[in-house]
Amino acid sequence: MMTVDVLRPPPEVWRRMSGWISTLASNDAFMTRKLCRCHIGNLSLAAPQPRFCLTSKDVGLNGNVERAYMVGWRYLACAEGEAIAFAELAAEGPSAIGDDIVLSESPVVQATASVLESLKGGYDNGLRTHALGILSVPSLHAEFIWLRHRRSAASRDRFIPVLLPNRGRLLQVLRLSELMKVLVDAKVELRLEGTPALVGNLLKELPA
After folding, report:
1. How far apart are CA 44 and CA 57, in angstroms?
2. What are the CA-CA distances from residue 199 to residues 49, 134, 140, 169, 190 (Å)?
3. Which of 6, 13, 92, 111 is most buried, most CB within 10 Å of its CB?
4. pLDDT of 53
5. In 3-state terms, the chain is what percent helix, strand and coil (to 5)?
C-alpha cells in the first residue's frame, strides 16, 4: 500500500511567508483577482510542498528525475476552505531559503488542491512510503504531483499530472518511464503549436 508523507519546511519559511502575506493584505497590495477579494481573516496557508524543476534537456526515454533541482517551497493560499492561489518562497534546497516570494492564480491551483485532497487518506497510515512534492518542467508547460519513494530508486516514484500540453490523453498515475514518454511527446507537440491545458480528474487507484 502506498502511504504519503507531507514534508515540513523549516520554521523560517513559514515565518517569512505568513509575514509577507499579512503585510500585503494589510496594505491592500494583492495583485491577483481572487486574493484582492479575500479578507485577511479568511486567508490561510496550507499544504507546503517542495517544488523541483527539470529542464527539457534532461527529458528523454532514458531520462531520470534525479537531475531535478529544488526551486522553492510552495503553499496553497486558501480562503474559507477553498484553494485560490499558490504562494511560493524561493529555495535552493530544503534549508537554503531565498528572498523571492511569488503569488499566482491559475486553474492549476484547483487541480493541485484536488489531487492533494484525494491523497489525504494516505498521509498518516502505516509506514509512509512516499514523500510529497511538485515536479515542474517549465519549458514544456508541464507540472506533476511527485510521489517520491523514500527507500528506493526513482523507478518506484509516481507522478500525477496537473498541467500538460495536451488535454485528455492521460487519466492515470504515471510511473517514471511513462512520465518520460509523456514529456518526450510534449516536446514534439509544442513544436507543432500545442497549447498547455489543465488535466483534471486524473486519479485512479494508486499503484502499490
Report:
1. 37
2. 20, 15, 14, 9, 16
3. 111
4. 96
5. 30, 35, 35
